[in-house]
Records
---
Amino acid sequence: MRFRRGNPALLTATLNHKQGLMTSRKLRQAFQAALDMEPIMDAAAGHYLLYRLDPGLWPPEQVFQHSKAGAVLYNEKDKAKARRLLKEAGYTGQPVRWLTTNEAPHHYKSALVAKQQLEDVGFKIDLQVLNFATLQQNLSRPELFDVISTWHGFSVSSPALSNWVDCLSPYSGWWCLEEKERLLAELARETDTRKRKGIIDRVQTLFYEDVGQIRFGDLFQLSVVRKELRGEFRSEPFTFFWNAWLEKK
């Protein structure tokens, strides 16, 4: 058999910007500052070859969209800063409702490790484990959660259309910011590659400064094919076997 690593998905925890505890910017910043992404991603993927730590909202494989902007706020693992921000936010131990599912092990295991790290700095995490269908249904009900486990697949569309930065999408946690909305509208119109990259850098900087959501890292799927399979087949981002054949022994 032959093994190949597919295109990455963004493993995230979506914060609820519409209502509840995570409408506090300082509380979101404390959440972000507390996390050490290496053990979180290791638990989610199970092997170092199946994950990558990277700040980009769009992966390195998308060369003209990938950015390192805001990287200083990614994977901070700064417990002292997190505790200070919790105090400044006036947090008094209210339970943070985090919805996840053990039907998707990468969701559940990443949430478990993050829960421990967050509680180490003073958060109280109410981790609610649901079946996957219920988790998806509850994603559009902001009254039910403060944080929800999500991931975003490899996207071939324009960054301006990505649901994890869309103000109206539950996949962004309804993250709405006036400057970000203006930049996304500008990005949708801009055709110059260099200018587009500058806009993407600014959107990503805002993402980390305002804590749009929590980006754990890139998660890879492992594809396995028989050694007899030949040709230019692909399994990511869409599966097809055009011009592929089984070699006869």
---
Amino acid sequence: MRVRRETGWRIERYPQIVVGAKDEEPDRRGALVKAALDIALVEGLDGLTLEAVAEKAGTSVEVVQRTIGGQDDVMLALLDWVLARTLDADRDIETPHAGPRQLGDMVSAEMEGLRRQAPVVELIFMFYFVRPDDRFRARIREALSNYRHSFESALEGVELQRGLTPRAMSTIVISFLQGAAVQIIRDPDNFDPTEAIAAARALLT
């Protein structure tokens, strides 16, 4: 969810799983995905077995299989949940009338969100590089494509410097954010979104 403030952009992401008390199946599925997330954040994807998820959720392997499916299905459900909360293209990013000046605020807010969610963001890299399966990679590629399009749409009609097109600028922005994500995971204590934005601006002037 995106919230516009007078001082800039504040991105509220990574909400808790919210399920309806009257709907048992989504409630059970949500609890199982939450259990899978807790396991993956501590033990990595190798620890994400049906038995581990069942034990963490206080249920049986049969319930996990009946609700979500096999081990790969559990991983896909977890990946979909993570992508929906870290590469959330549906939150309808918009560039306000201030135009290009707000682009830096948008990128800075995204980087701050990445920093807050570094362990979850790291799971995306695990899925892509540790589990080189196209079922996972295809979902990540699609999410990144939608994410880029959200920035491209936000820049439509905005006069950009150096003759850049919205498509080119959105590609640069996503590349910058991907690099920032790696740095956040590798050395989070020495990463500052404001300094990163200032450094990028200095390189372009």
---
Amino acid sequence: GYQNLCRLITKMKLRAKKGEGSVTAQELEEHAAGLILLTGGNEGPLAAALSQCGPDQARGRLAHLIGIFGANNVYVELQRHFQREEESRNRIAIDLARSLHLPLLATNGVNYAIPKARELADAFTAIRHHRTLSTAGRLLARNSERHLKSPQEMQQLFADLPEAISNTVELSNRLEFALNDLGYEFPRYPLPE
């Protein structure tokens, strides 16, 4: 999986400008083995399909992704940052996941470690868009909810969806990676004692 992820990133970066990039459906199909797909938050394929085309097209997009990654490797990701449109999207995503028998996953789209670090994240956002903080407007985060939350905070946030929490734990137990898994051997250099 890690090797396939590296291959996809390399293909994407070879043809994209800095900070941009995407892979083709064919490339995904070629390199999906060992990968797990999370549908993402605002920027994910499910949110894009819902906003552009509605629930029926989103269902089709999910079915296509299931065909590429396999039903056991597609998780419908839910995030809660106290934004009305996000919760509306979550409701539709929950219905789609249940109808397609896909597991729900509680995540937080973390951008910073602690709530106070949002100020620094906002400053970097303004710099990236060549704006001042006072002119960045809607580019900046609406609140400080994208911090690393404790298990207890996540359980409280998703108290109505305990399966999303248990699936998150289950997925984290599935993910095993060590540098030995790279399948790459670094060159041996002669070193003095």
